[in-house]
Each structure stands twice: as structure tokens, then as C-alpha cells.
Amino acid sequence: MSQTKTLAAYGAALRYEDIPSDVLNRAKNLTLQTLGVSLGALGSDVGRRAVELGRIMGGGSSEATIWGEGSKVSAAAAGLANGTLADALDWEDCSWTGHPSACAVSTAFAVAEQLRASGKDYLLALITAYELYERIAMAVQPGPDFGWMTKGWGLTSWAIYASSIAGGKLLGLDAEAMENLIGITGALTPTINVLPHVTRTDYYHFQWGLNSFSGIAGAHLAKVGISPLPDYLDGDSGYWCTMTDICRWEWYTKNLGSQWMIMETLMKHWPTNMWIQQPLDGMAELIAAHALKPADIASITISPEVESRWHVHPEGYNSVVDGQFSIPYCVAAMLHHPAPTQEWYSEKFRHDPSVVELSARVHHRGEYLRLQQCFEMFQRGEYPHYDITVETTDGRTLRKEVPLPKGHPRNMMTDAEFLERFHLVADPVLGTEKAARVADMVMNMEALECAGDIADAMRVEK
User: What's 314's domain CATH number?
Assistant: First the structure.
């Protein structure tokens, strides 16, 4: 049997009863996190434009809900808006290969609401999406000479599989239709290009929603039916040759049925790029322990130096991504406002002279790590070890080592910590009582006859 047929058969046959309880619980917490950070993004510039785009693209239909804002639009348009909201604060998950939750959760909710599918159906679709998406993405990881910073790394390309597989599972595709869906999705995959990354354009966040939009369309096409498109992942002309310079063939079926990919996923503790999680973990502890204020900081030195995460702009940070991908900026933002918030990335905050000036006092030292090295360490069970040194204006030297970020699979947040993070961002949008009701629905999702009821419960009163 081909790799494609093996994956398709596994995805089509997987049942809710096959999934261990700890995997189901992780899927609920991941859902809670994704919904919370999406609600927190509603007031951001990217969030407002995502909602507007969803309403433009989905008008005239009432299949699914734009989270928080409450408009009823087509399922694909809901995936577009909600997938963008999920990534807008860069606060969802990060697997070995990108941010699958932005596509998988937004699609699973949209299609579940469209079909009035149950909470169990939603959880099964979400976990199935992680199982297939992560293996396909790992198989096409680039070799050492591919050129991450010249050609690009396809995290916003192969992410479309997280959407389409979630949708296809909810639509009840059999093995043959699931195989066609793998081919359809491969053909729909956006091209890899480094420019959205190196320009730090806000378009980066919209790519996740666009993948959800296309993935939902692909899933429905597979359900409607096409003539066979078999074995898309296999052979010299397979999916890999459009994505990378090598194929890691073993990954397509590696530990299939025994290693649950959702359990290998990092859940971000802070609204920023994953390689900035540890500096913020460490700074949060130092701020709390020593009551640090911006005026107390003479300098901050952080090791290691991670590629393309150290830009400082004396004139201010021009885009949301410009701030989210800068260690100096994020440290300065936290010192000015220790509680994480979308305000960190507002136009006003990104150009605040005191924030910008403080970012120039954050420096790097030690080993230089390329982004590809960092992700390869994560993929093989290792992780960069961060060291933070703060020199204060009154002569103190404060140090903090952070071997693993909070939310790493080996340093995972507890159920209580996930809930605390959810309330931190959801309460200001929904109010404490409504946010608590939404959290209770998510954490007891297996009892819901219609998973889409959660989207209705998240509607903000106008």
C-alpha cells in the first residue's frame, strides 16, 4: 500500500473511542487556548480586518459564526476570519512544523457548526487533522542546503492540510475520498516564498485564515467527488518535490497510531514568536521577584542569539509582526505592561518612545542559532537553553536561566494554567461569567450535541 493510501485509510478509520483520554484533554485545552487568543485579537488591527474580510467573503450565508463578533457567514468565510484571528497575536500553538491549531481549530469549528456535528465529532476531527498534517509536514522538511532564508520555510504552505483533513473528517470521507483530499490539498498548497517572513508583513497572519478557506473548499470538493487523484504523496513526482529538496519518507507513517502528534505540540505562554517565549518567561519571573520597572533597567543581555529575532528600530516598529518577531521589542513591551495583551502590538505601543528606547538596551551574546537549527532541535527532542542577565541602574546583576519554555511538551501548562490564560484574554471581551460558561462547554465538549453552540456562546453583546 502506498504512503498516501496508508495515511488516508488511517484518517478515515480513526474513531473517537480509539483516542486516549489524555489526548482528548489536550485537544480541549488546545481548543480553549485557540479560542481565547482569538477573542483577545478582536480589538487588534489585524483582528478587525479579519472580521471585515470574513463578512465580505461570506455574506448571504449563515452556516457558521465569526468568533466573538457573531456574524453568521459561510463555513469557508468563518474559517478565513477565525483562522486569521487565531494567529493574529501569535499566541496559539507551535508544533515541529508551524501553527496547525490556527487552521485545524477554525476549520473544525466552522464545518462542525455547518453540519451541526457533535462535540465528539469535533474532537475526533481535530485530532485526526494533527495526526495527518504533522506527518505530512515532517516528511517534507527541507534539507540543510535548501535555503530557509532565501527560498523560505513552508509553515504557511503545508498548514492547509491541518484545515482540509479536519473538514474532511467531519464530512465523513471514506478512505478513497480521503486519498483524493490529500491530493486536492497538495494541489491547493500555497507556494513557498521567504518574502512574507523577511518583510514582516501583517499578511503573514492572514495566510492561516486563507488556508482554512481553501482547506474547507477542498474538503467539500472531496465529498462532492472527483475522478481519482491517487498517491499524491508518493514517488518522484509526489508532494515533496514541490516543497523541499529531500523527502523523509519514513515520516508519513512513523509511529502511526501510537505517537499522538497533538501531544508533541508546544502551547505558547505569551503572544509572540516561539523563540521569544523563554526570554519572556525569564523576564516575567525577574519582574515579579524584583518589582522591576523600565527605569530600573541599565541593560539586558540574552543568550543565545537566534536568527532574525534581534532587530531594533529606533524609529519604531512598523508592523505587528515586526514587534512579535523582535526579542528586544517584546522584552521592552513586557516591562511596560507585564500582563500579556494585544495592546503590546498596537500602533501606539509600537511607536511609544519609551518602549522603543528600552528595546535598544536589550542585547544578545553567545551562540548564534539559525532558525532551521532551532526547529531541528525541537523536532529531535532538544531545545535551546536561554540565559538572561539584567543589569539594573542601582548596580544589581540579576540572572535567570530558562531551559524550556512554559507550554513545551515537557513543561506543559496544567489545566488550571490553561484556564487562567483563557480568562486573562476572554474576560475583557466576554465578561467573566460568559467566559466561564464558554470554558466549561469546551472542557466538557464530549457532552455537546452541537459543537457550534460554543461559537454562539462567544458572541459579544453589542
Answer: 3.30.1330.120
Within its chain, how far is the Cα of 185 from the centroid? 19
Residues 65 and 188 in one domain: yes
* DSSP single-letter state for residue 68: T
Calpha distance 425→447 (Å, rounded) = 25
Tally of residues, the chain: 462
Domain endpoint, select from 360, 378, 402: 402
Q: Identify which of 214, 228, 233 has the alpha carbon closest to the alpha carbon of residue 10.
A: 233
Exposed, middle or buried: residue 255 (CB in 10 Å: 0-12, 13-18, 19+)?
exposed
Domain total of the chain: 2
Which residue is listed with cell 487523484?
Answer: 229
In this structure, are residues 130 and 100 in contact, taking their beta carbons and an 8 Å threshold? yes
Q: How confident is the model at residue 332 (pLDDT cuts 50, 70, 90)?
A: very high
Q: Are residues 289 and 390 in the same domain?
A: yes
- How far is 75 from 106, CA to CA, in rounded Å? 10
| Strand, coil or helix: 401 | strand
Whether 44 and 185 map to the same domain: the answer is yes
193 and 301 housed in the same domain: no
The C-alpha cell 496547525 sits at 100
The CATH number linked to 253 is 1.10.4100.10
Q: Which residue has the cell 487565531?
A: 86
Peptide bond into 304 cis (omega under 30): yes
State the DSSP H helix or E strand holding residue 390, giving kind and residue range, or none if neither.
Answer: strand 386-392
Mean of the per-residue pLDDT values of the chain:
97
Range of the domain at 24: 3-267
pTM score of the predicted model: 0.97
The CA-based angle 116-118-120, given to 5 degrees, is 155
Residue 422 resides in a domain: no
Query: CA-CA distances (angstroms) from residue 357 to 124, 303, 341, 346?
Result: 48, 21, 20, 17
Identify the CA nearest to 384 among candidates 399, 372, 396, 397.
372
Q: What are 168-189's pLDDT values in tens digits?
A: 999 999 999 999 999 999 999 9
